[in-house]
Amino acid sequence: MINTRRVRRTFLLGAALSLAGLRSGILLADDKPEKSRVILAVGGKTSLQYLPLAIADRLGYFAAEGLDIEMLDLGNAARTQQALLEGAADVACAGFDGLLENYASRQQPQAFCLLARAPQIAFGVSMRSMPAYRRVSDLKGRKIGVAGAGSAAELVAAMVMSGAGLRLQDVHMVETGGIGAALQAVRAGQVDAMVHTEPVMTMLEQKGDVRIISDARSLKGAQDIFGGVMPSTCLFAPAAYLRTHPNTAQAVANAVVHALKWLQTAGPSDLIKALPETYLLGDRGLYLAAFGKLRESISLDGLVPEDGLKTALRALHRRDGNFQPDKIDAERVYTNVFARKAKDKFRA
Q: How crowded is residue 303: how many other Cβ atoms within 10 Å of its Cβ?
């Protein structure tokens, strides 16, 4: 005889499991990126400020999140933000201060994952042009090389000089661009000082081309210059994109935070194995030395520190008295929602 009570109980259990599986499937589907192909604009992908992106790509972290990332290398930070605003890129990676400088009421990009908690920039005086250099005030009227106008390097230069009573107007700022052009500018005597990212500054320092007078590659150095935690390289996207593609943004943040965690414990051999030779610029030892200079400034978890915005606003106002910090809406500048979820996922 058929036990109808048992059959009914089995049917209900099966239906419940099927419903649970269906719901699970829906949740999994909902978690998938809204678009798998993401165009990510950077200002020089071999620069160490973009190292977490390279690691996320090379170790398959982007792919593991269901993403196909296309790196759009545009040479400098200004072009990356422009590409984002023009719709040529979905996400961009550049300095946090740039978001504030270009703050606008429309199409305001929003940072959603921090790569560096210091500018990772050093200020060096040319030993060719200024062998008798003694103090910052000696730079008055001199040519200072930076990667680009309005860049984080220019802000570092402004802060260092302001401590000696100098303004940007008291020197001649020269845009030198990427690695090769920056090295040539110093070695050919085209500039008297250089303010740049890595590996440029370690290359110049090791060859005795420059003497480092201020260093924002370390947390202490940045603290000395800015008087607080100064968030730097970050991922940002239009706020509308983050609203309409939350799973895509989350996937990007997941991959990068995963890479940030890997970098905390990676040894020299791990780094060499992970990166292609083109990133190492033909000199592994030099590359590793440059990495060592900024390693501690790499973000631990992708979160923008709460006091970071105040530090950045203070610095921008100090550089330009016309800059109005009170006009900036913090909630429109950055969000930690995506990085916090990524941090929890990877226990970063």
A: 21
CATH number of 121-215: 3.40.190.10
User: Sheet holding 210-215: strands in order across?
Assistant: 172-175, 143-146, 193-197, 121-126, 210-215
Asked whether 225 and 118 are in contact (CB, 8 A), the reply is no
Say if CB 234 and CB 308 are below 8 A apart.
no
Report DSSP letters for 143-161, one per residue.
EEEESSTTSHHHHHHHHHH
Which residues does residue 145 pair with via DSSP β-bridges, in sequence order?
174, 194
Q: What is the DSSP string of 152-208?
A: HHHHHHHHHHHTTT--GGGSEEEE--SHHHHHHHHHTTS-SEEEEETTHHHHHHHTT
What is the spatial distance between Cα 58 and Cα 255, in angstroms, rounded to a whole number? 11
Q: What is the pLDDT of residues 217-273, one digit of tens each?
A: 999 999 999 999 999 999 999 999 999 999 999 999 999 999 999 999 999 999 999
Give residues with Cβ within 8 angstroms of 61, minimum separation 6: 55, 254, 255, 256, 258, 259
Distance CA 230, CA 228 (A): 6
Residues 124 and 346: beta-carbon distance below 8 Å = no
Which residues pair with residue 192 across a beta bridge?
none
Domain map of the chain by residue range?
31-118+230-346, 121-215
Q: What is the CATH number of domain 31-118+230-346?
A: 3.40.190.10
